[in-house]
Amino acid sequence: MKQPLVIAPSILSADFARLGEDTRLALEAGADWVHFDVMDNHYVPNLTIGPLVCKALRDYGITAPIDVHLMIEPVDRIIPDFAEAGASLISIHPETTRHLDRSLSLIRECGCKTGIVFNPATPLDVLDWVIDKVDLVLLMSVNPGFGGQQFIPSALAKLKQARRIIDESELEIRLEVDGGVKPGNAADIIAAGADTLVAGSAIFGADDYAEVIRALRGQTTA
Ligand code: DX5
Ligand code: ZN
């Protein structure tokens, strides 16, 4: 069953020189979660932030769920560090671990919710075998590594497929979309089955975060 819509601004597009403040502004503007992109210049061709920054956001006073998206390889060594640093949910790409089932179990043992991430060209096959260990399915609608890319339309068909699998499982699993999400395509993405929207450049690139967040929710603006 579909859960209430969550908007998760990707802080990849925030002002890193004033990260705490910019994150707080997005939450005050109506966002629900903080989407935290971790890149290693190995699994993806970019380098970003680690557990120290996650902890810094907690120390700054951010209490909203932090949705950590690991684009790093391997993952197991760093999972406990993110849990310790205040992550609420940790998502991993299946191809970044030799033992997906073990890595998902490790995330739960550390007290966090689990997410599994599928790149645009990656089939959903493995989901069948780990679905009972998954709290969130994240479909990439761009190739991971950078903010500000164009939404890949095939993600809509894949969303419908993922929605079907989740509904048939009767488990409480969120369906999140990441990449190129903006007010102009949010309605189609939600209609295809998503209940959690990541948006980086669309929110942090705007003058009025609240207006974009309302538009993503399909609420008309004045
Ligand atoms: C890309 C990241 C995304 C990215 C989305 O690898 O996982 O979270 O920040 O940015 P936008 O919303 O600008 O496409
Ligand atoms: Zn992401």
Q: Key terms for this structure?
A:
binds zinc ion; single chain; binds D-xylitol-5-phosphate; alpha/beta; 9 helices; 222 residues; eight-stranded parallel sheet; TIM Barrel
Task: Describe the protein.
The protein is an alpha/beta fold. The chain has one domain (6-216): Alpha-Beta Barrel (TIM Barrel), CATH 3.20.20. It has helices spanning 19-28, 51-60, 79-84, 100-109, 127-130, 154-169, 183-191, 201-204, 209-216, and strands at residues 6-9, 34-39, 66-71, 89-92, 113-118, 136-140, 174-178, 196-199. An eight-stranded parallel β-sheet has the order 1-8-7-6-5-4-3-2. The two termini are 32 Å apart. The model has no long low-confidence stretch (mean pLDDT 97). It binds D-xylitol-5-phosphate and zinc ion.
Summed up:
Helix 7 packs parallel to helix 9. The protein has a single domain (6-216), classed as TIM Barrel (Alpha-Beta Barrel), CATH 3.20.20.70. The chain is built from 9 helices and 8 strands.
**Might you state the CATH topology name?**
TIM Barrel
Question: Uncertain segments of ≥5 residues (pLDDT<50)?
Answer: none
User: What is the annotated CATH architecture?
Assistant: Alpha-Beta Barrel
CATH H level, superfamily name: Aldolase class I
Strand percentage lies at: 15-25%
Number of strands: 8
Major sheet: size, sense and barrel closure? 8 strands, parallel
Report the mean per-residue pLDDT as an integer: 97
The end-to-end span amounts to 32 Å
Classified by CATH, the class is Alpha Beta
